[in-house]
Amino acid sequence: MAEDTFDLIVLGGGPGGYVAAIRAAQLGLKTACVEKESALGGTCVRVGCIPSKALLDSTELFDQIRHKTELHGIKVGAPEMDVARMHARKDAVVKSNTDGVAFLFKKNKIEWVRGFGRLASPETVEVQGEGGTRTLRAKNIVLASGSVPVELPFLKFDGERIIDSTGALALPEVPGHLVVVGGGVIGMELGSVWLRLGAKVTVLEMAPTIRPGMAAEIGRQADRVFRTQGFDIRTGTRVTGAERRGDKVMVSVEGQDPIEADYVLVAVGRRAYTEGIGYEEAGVRLNRGVIQVDEHYHTGVAGIYAIGDAIGGRMLAHKAEEEGVAAVEFAAGRHGHVNYDAVANVVYTWPEIASVGMTEEEAKAAGAEYRVGKFPFQANGRARAMAETDGMVKVLADARTDRMIGLHILGPRASDLIAEAALAMEFQASATDIAMSVHAHPTLPEAVKEAALAACGRAIHI
To answer: Does the predicted model carry a pTM greater than 0.85?
Structure first.
């Protein structure tokens, strides 16, 4: 059994883990990263964020050709989608990203130890790989084991017709009818992919609204837009089971007739992946499967830190990345920093949905005094030129200090527009700061400026 010593070991090669490893190497630490999969990048890069965005971009283009070319004076025939070629492009995009992470490891002299890693003690990780067991030793270890899809006991995955998000990224055909259980980010994004290609998509959400936790006003507008696109959205609906009947699935719904589907995507969330990795045996505290850490991402066990989905909170790749950087900097005796108030959420449907900071409902619950500014994309010149006028920007500003406390967007390229708001939140900017900043014309970001102006009581273009 070989044994090697490092300054820092990262257990997990996802966004949090590989970024933590790179930061450690930048700080001069001899670093190893343990990852069991055949490629680096974790769920996000291999079977999550990256492949889903590749499919969303492909199907957005397909949808534009079908429905919007005539508006622009472009005459084309009815497009056809080659699903196999679409998947081949997606796979190539994924490979370019995983290869990129591998290149960064070589550049920064990080050793990728391939195999299943288990925390054997506060200072050792045992890795079971093809060549046997290898023991790694380090003064500091960062746990970045990520998350896995939640499987319902009455709706178990069969990998064929009852599938998780990974399965929905690789369907070999356009379903006649796709039933999505869960109206959150994953369900709406992957539902959008197959809806655009011609599938009937029924979304069954137990909560009163899709995307629970979203700002209510934005959620109501999004619901209307999605229904217009063709989604069959049924909120307040409890699924009780599913039965395979050949190539069909009969989905049982409380108080309703069963629904026949070709595929059922179970997208009710993800859970921390922490079992069977030796955490508790090494003294790491877990609460309902989630690693407990302090404000320095320390687990309470000397030298062991944890980040990302494994420590709970919002399961976002960019959150995990920043936590990885912060944890390594704390381990190296420096100061780490993550401002959770400035961490943006994005839903990559079309139109996109993005937010940062408090919702109006949260502000009311906290007893905050605030002002609201809104601006519709219908009044934005660039959005009109793009024929993409659905949605709005909504700003929340503290009534006394004018400091930005929240910004919410439903509209074209919201995922890009939210960066300005995140920067404003990070630097504690006011609504007036955004309102007084010159925004190029005609651009979509002008809608952010106008919403900030509205919060100050002086919007120009509405």
So the answer is: yes
